[in-house]
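Structure ticket #2291
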Amino acid sequence: MVAMNNFLFIINPFSGRGQKEKTEIKIASCCRRQHVECTVMHTEAPGHAAVLAKQHAGKFDAIIAVGGDGTVNEVARALVHTRTPMGIIPNGSGNGLARHLGIPMKTTEAIKTLFNSVPTLIDTFRINGNLGVNVAGIGFDGHIANRFGNHAQRGLSGYTQLVIADYFSYPEFSYQFTYEGEHHHGNGFIVSIANSSQFGNNAFIAPAASVTDGMLDFVSVRKIPIWRLPTAIARLFTRKLSAASYYSVQRLTDFNITCEEDISFHIDGESCSKAKEFSIQTDAASLLVLRPRNKTI
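Resolution: structure written out below.
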């Protein structure tokens, strides 16, 4: 158990589940029982979590991101390569990194887990200079992330609505990736750069990925015929997608991807517009996180 007495909680009140007031009450109650001082701050706009975390790094025993993967990414931007650990209270639509780390989805249980956590260095990565901690995607999931950011309905149901609406009209794309001086060509519907195993909601795009191996899983998924979609969806949620013929994965470090045209992409579920060229670098053991004990990551 790690001895920590002073936590800063950065809450994104706009994240998937909302309920800001209830979350604050739970934080205060749990910290009081553990005799831990807590300070709560709220984000006011995109990017504000990174500003707050940067301002207070080193002033608290840990800084806790309360929100979804976007909020986690922002706090990580400020804490990467520092000695201040980042904790996570999942309160978003997918919560991919939190799920991979084994953090409970129930707010009270997640807060309690902080007091019996293990500080662990995990890998991060960058795409075109932008930090990623969970999963980035080029192609269809980047397109959906762009639309999801402006969609009225959040959560898995809202995401599913967009996927169904756009799946058949969105085309595959051609790409070239370069690794250790060798050039390779491919076609993909979804190209994922995975540090952890899942997008979120237990949808496992890279079931064998680890956040502590210094590598990224480079995943390419071809467009799946309609008659195979039910099986593909079942594979995605049961960690069996890697056995499918339309799926390929390679474990890489630094590499480049070049597309024939501008393609939508996202980093940790947040839309990054479009690009033709992507420079990906790994940064091993660069972010200190609080994770549950007895969980392989």
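Closing remark: The domain at 6-116 is CATH 3.40.50.10330 (Rossmann fold).
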